[in-house]
Amino acid sequence: MDQAPVPLDTVVISATRGEVAAFAAPAAITAIDANVIRSAGPLVNLSEALVRVPGLTVLNRQNYAQDLQLSIRGFGSRSTFGIRGVRVIVDGIPATMPDGQAQASNVSLATAERIEVLRGPLALLYGNAAGGVVQVFTQAGAPEPTATLSASAAPYDAHRVGASFAAASGEHRYTIDASRFETDGYRDHSAARRDQLNAKWSWQLAPATRLDTVVNVLDQPDALDPLGLTRAQWEASPRQAPAIAFTQDSGKSVRQKQAGWVLEHALASDTTLTARAYLGERDLDNKLSTPLAAQLPASSSGGIVVFGRQYAGTALQLARRFVLGDAVSARLVAGIEHDRMADDRQGYLNDAGVRGALRRDEDDRVANTDVLLQASADFGERWSAVAGVRSSRVRFETRDRYIAPGNPDDSGTLEYRATNPVAGLTWHAARELNVYANVGRGFETPTFTELAYRNNASGLNTDLKASRSTHAEAGAKWRSDSGHGVEAALFDVKTRDEIVVDTNVGGRSTFRNAGNTARRGVEIAYSGQWTQELRAAVSLTALRARFDNGNRLPGTPERSAFAELVYAPAPGVHAAVEMVHVGRIFVNDANEDCAPAATLVNLRAGLRRRLGALEIEPLLRLENATNRRYAGSVIVNEANRRFFEPALPRTWLASLTARYRF
pTM of whole model > 0.85? Predict the structure, then answer.
């Protein structure tokens, strides 16, 4: 039977770095369970399930060469590829690099048990570029040995097949999952394939000690890039790709391997030590759409980017609970984290999709060292407080090995430091009502990609500053015994030196610091069980994100909404109607054009039946049932005015999952 999107008794850890009921968490936090994840789509993109989260905008670009566009309260909206300004963590292991750039393509949704989305000031305690935090927790083992086979199909020859096995034996719990996704793409020149392997092993070494091991492998060869379209091209034929995409064969090939370990040891009944270590490597070959003529100047780094990346990190955290008096207790968390990334990067001429002469050769290094102190306290039954501070140091270094006439030595270093405090207070007004307020300060360094180029010059963009922000939030959470709940949050964020796109030409972007920006808004979420068969969920977001000159922040809708009505007439049977609204999205800092607002209707129906040891779960979805033509996302400040990335028309999805319990 379909489950409610945010169960009222869900336990979360993102807000306090320790288990706490979502209702009691002193922050705006949304948890999405496995049933919602499995019913939201083909288990390929985070956008399938996250569309229901207030305050979060996730745009599926229908472009597997560039990944999703994901932003929280406007943070991350400027990203031209990957995820920027939002921290992504999978099973305790960062998917965000030390410079703040993240990729979500290695997340295994098929075995995800829960996704948590933390918004607001407490997210700032996760460090650089933490405008919000998305944490994914995957399954480790099963009460009975369980083999699962899944398959899905959709138009444009999109299909996914997957297999997993989960079991538990004594002190060991383990899950392994493998899948392949392929599509010809809705648009011309947008075919892609993605192979994934994920494994999780949880070993209870001793009654007080547990070691989790996580391994994942991603192979995404030849994901073609259809680029954006001008408004005229989009309105004339949204499935087309610009001629330059074919001429230069724009696209990307990615291979990534990663392993991580999380050790948790109870030193005493009130003291826990947690250690984390991970390492990985990522190889990328990216053909840009830069015309050959634009690659010929001596200072150009070509039109094909190739790098081999090695990255690793460690962290140590100590948490201790204190009893300070009658009905007064406290919890103290102290931690230190170190992460590093090293790229062996080359650039080559792109001559009609063929690798030409070397035009760039350098070693890029970035590392961060952070120290965290966080304290929370309960004062009787009515009041609780949280406070924390994080000190961060992020260092960039590049060593240029390609020095030629007209292309000088561009080696250099940059370092950013910040100490950011956060504080909050919660009033437990009644058993069914909590009211909280938080304030904090955060920062966001440029990524290496943003530092890599200057406008009309070479070398690191040393003029680019880290942006600094001040956040304030007030919220309330109410729930009733009859199965209804409402959460609301008001927020105000002021940022100086916002990092924005300066130029975006031929697949290459340069960046600059803008003036001040202000983000103010409200988020509301409701979930309720109306009858035994009928339940509903609604989330609403209003965001006013403006530069100090009054222009709207591009890439960020000022209105968004999600509504769902689920009918479950019998155990294992469900049908639902979904409504998704995304407001207009401006395409550049000058607000010269925008992607129009769009309201979509999706329908779904599913069944779960158990036949002895076998369980089958078919699912049918009809996406964009009214066949609305709209732009799924925009490429911010694209210099060729190819801003628009078309979304899918009316389409369907059919999937079947079979589980056998031994």
Answer: yes
